[in-house]
Amino acid sequence: METTQRHIIDEEVQWDKTKTIVSKTDIYGTILYANDVFSNTCEYSTIELVGEPHNIIRHPDMPKVAFKVLWDALKKGENFHAIVKNLTRTGRYYWVITDFTIDKDENGKTIGYTARRKAVPDGVVKKIEPIYKTLLDIEKLKGEKASEMYFDAYLKEEVGKTYNEFVVDLFNEELSKEEAEKVKNETNPLKKGLNWFFFGDTNPS
């Protein structure tokens, strides 16, 4: 189902934010596997998702440059984190932070990607949403290249980090607030927080 055929509803879908959304794709982004959390959240069945391009859940509020930096990194063999607003079948949305890993065959050739997604704290959404809106507005008015140039300059001049570094630090800052009591005795909670967040769930299905 194309995004243009769906009525966009400014309403967050209800889903279990303690769970991990997991999917596997080939090198072109075609969905090979989707766990139950994924299908339940995006409101498609697993059968409907398999074989479809992952942009079946792309929300029109997302600027294209966010996906460009993602794919550029993955093609270079670099792991990556991204904050994304996704679109459900009924036109609702859900925000996630994604941890990508690169799947390789026995010869070390990249054959696909595994993505683990968790819910995004409200504080992160409030910080990233206006940035994405600016990028999208530039994209609509001046084109994708102008949006990309602005984003690159913004990261260099105002943030001083790559997109991946910016996302990880932004997320860990909020995560550390929520988990302060749980990790108050740790010497470096920010460094272990994101890894725990993605891989601490032993029952992602």
Structural write-up:
With 205 residues, the chain is α+β, with helices and mostly antiparallel strands. It is 42% helix and 19% strand. The chain has helices spanning 36-42, 46-49, 64-75, 122-142, 144-159, 163-178, 189-199; strands at 21-25, 31-34, 80-87, 93-104, 110-119. A five-stranded antiparallel sheet has the order 2-1-5-4-3. Helix 4 crosses helix 5 (144-159) and helix 6 packs across helix 7 (189-199). The relative contact order is 0.15.
Largest sheet: 5 strands, antiparallel
Low-confidence stretches: 183-191
Spell out the helices and strands N to C. EEHHHEEEHHHH
Helical amount: 40-55%
Number of helices: 7
Mean pLDDT: 86
Strand content: 15-25%
SS-derived structural category: alpha+beta
Radius of gyration in whole Å, from Cα?
17 Å
Assign an overall shape.
Answer: globular
Strand elements, count: 5
Distance from N terminus to C terminus (CA atoms, Å) equals: 25 Å
Strand order of the largest sheet: 2-1-5-4-3
Secondary structure layout plus pairing:
Blueprint: E1 21-25, E2 31-34, H1 36-42, H2 46-49, H3 64-75, E3 80-87, E4 93-104, E5 110-119, H4 122-142, H5 144-159, H6 163-178, H7 189-199
Antiparallel strand pairs: 1-2, 1-5, 3-4, 4-5
Helix pairs in contact: 4-5, 6-7
Kindly summarize this structure in a few lines.
The protein is α+β, with helices and mostly antiparallel strands. Helix content is 42%, strand content 19%. It has helices spanning 36-42, 46-49, 64-75, 122-142, 144-159, 163-178, 189-199, and strands at 21-25, 31-34, 80-87, 93-104, 110-119.
